[in-house]
């Protein structure tokens, strides 16, 4: 055996290390794997299917799924196993191994010491068949009773941690009880390590409790809380904006200047503060430290422009929905005493003495001739006899020719 190992050593370390002397470490006995008894496993599975097993689903059957629904998670966390004392857990035979480690020793002159280099490390089973060891172990029922977070898998004959399996990170460094545990000889040590104060088990356990509170309706989910908070903010902002619009409408209706001697003492700000005296939402908004208060001059001008557009649109809608309408306009003059409104659309009465006024009246009548025709036709449809006579008179060929000639001359 040593001669064969020397050959392996020379092959692994190469020619430069062939002068090193191989040494054999002290053999160590350790448990590496288990072999379940097939008869008990089949009988156990039949009992589990018959109703002797736990009420929660088997994690081994769902761990390969990419998505686990909330109802399954709730069943795993809330499921119980009241008749665990009636369940016969299968035995597992222990397989023992000898641990062999070979290393080379090399002398380093600069450090004046020897350096050990491991070149070969292996485990050799003591027996070919685990049943020849004669030692077998099975899961204790008291472990499941004392640790309510533990979930047994009857397909794998292994245990999991329910909260850690559902909420633990699959790429976590510590995967104890996230992966199946079936080393019954060292199970008590694994449980102690899993329940240490610095263990992430308590974080996942808290996440599981929060999940169950939401599922059972005791608490609201984070999404609902965020949505409710945002909904309240939107309602408060709409309320504040409505009060600001009301102040601007009041100033415009009463012809009150918005600005004052100082921006912080303007008429708009003073009226808004007065309205806030009996409005808690507006008071909280004005006294808050946030910058977006919607009271700056730019916001005021934007709101005024929006209100102007709404007023114009309302007037246009009323005019379009009515059968007829009239416009009354007034003129203003600039420094050169020139009228700003050049288009003459208002009908004027003929003056008997001032010929210029008569010319202006005829020009205005010619310009508005289609509108006059349409208005008289509407009045005629309503049964106005005078409108019928006027329409018949102005529609004569002689009247139209005279009107055109007078305006062109």
Descriptive overview:
By secondary structure, the chain is an alpha+beta fold. The protein has three domains: 2-215, no CATH class; 223-320, no CATH class; 355-408, no CATH class. It contains 16 helices and seven strands. It has helices spanning 2-13, 38-52, 59-62, 70-78, 141-146, 162-167, 187-194, 201-215, 222-253, 267-276, 280-287, 297-321, 355-367, 369-381, 385-394, 397-408, and strands at residues 23-24, 28-36, 92-108, 113-125, 136-137, 150-153, 158-161. Strand 6 and strand 7 form a beta hairpin. Helix 14 packs antiparallel against helix 15 (385-394). The radius of gyration is 48 Å and the shape is elongated. Mean pLDDT is 75; it is low at 1-39.
Beta-strand percentage? Answer: 5-15%
Number of helices: 16
Main sheet attributes: strand count, strand direction, barrel closure: 5 strands, antiparallel
Overall average pLDDT? 75
Give the CA-based shape: elongated
Order of helices and strands: HEEHHHEEEHEEHHHHHHHHHHH
Q: Domain count, please report it.
A: 3
**Derived structural class:** alpha+beta
Uncertain runs: 1-39
| Rg, Å, rounded | 48 Å
Distance between the termini: 136 Å
Number of strands: 7
Counting copies of identical and different chains, the oligomeric state is single chain
Q: How much helix is in the residues? A: 40-55%
Pfam families: DUF4371
InterPro entries: DUF4371
Protein name: DUF4371 domain-containing protein
Organism: Tegillarca granosa
